[in-house]
Design a protein that fits this description.
about 50% helix, alpha/beta, Nucleotidyltransferase, domain 5, single chain, five-stranded mixed beta sheet, globular, about 160 residues
């Protein structure tokens, strides 16, 4: 079974794929980064197209997304909500359901600490998936892998 984790954002949306094969195994990860010079509607379309391409290429059976947290900046929260809406709609058009997890749930599941730092989460993802490349270069992608792993553990595979 292939699980797609998504860390939503309008500027940078991380994605990570794992599969179940006697434990969680890394498939691929990356970042969708629409050009910031594009109008908002074209950036949202780029997110849709990017997520759709990943779904069509890897055919995940499960999709997990980080829940939105309320930011002190209302405009930022609204933009994140727009990105999440597009990202939620894309798998729905393919008949796929999306599980959502709060940031603290993801951190606690991966590190055992609900208020773990990004660095602690990144290190645990790297240890769990035994990857040798530098996860620090793809922070949003590593966060997406953490979301996929969280869903994997909640499925109890």
């Amino acid at each position: 079974m292939v699980i797609l984790g998504i860390d939503p954002g309008l500027r940078s949306t991380g994605w990570g794929l794992i599969k179940h094969s006697s434990g969680p195994n890394y498939i691929n990860c990356g970042v969708i980064e629409p050009k910031t010079t594009l109008p908002a509607e074209e950036r949202l379309l780029a997110l849709h197209n990017g997520v759709l391409e990943i779904i069509e290429k890897y055919e995940p059976k499960e999709i997990a997304l980080e829940k939105v947290f309320v930011n002190t900046n209302g405009a930022t929260t609204l933009k994140l909500g727009e990105a999440r809406g597009v990202i939620l709609m894309t798998p729905a058009k393919k008949g796929l359901k999306v599980a959502e997890y709060a940031p603290n749930t993801i951190k606690k599941t991966i590190t055992g600490i609900g208020h773990a730092t990004k660095e602690q989460v990144q290190k645990m993802v790297q240890l769990i998936l035994a990857q040798k490349y530098d996860f620090h270069k793809k922070k949003d992608a590593t966060d997406a892998l953490a979301i996929a792993l969280c869903h994997y553990y909640y499925l109890r595979l």
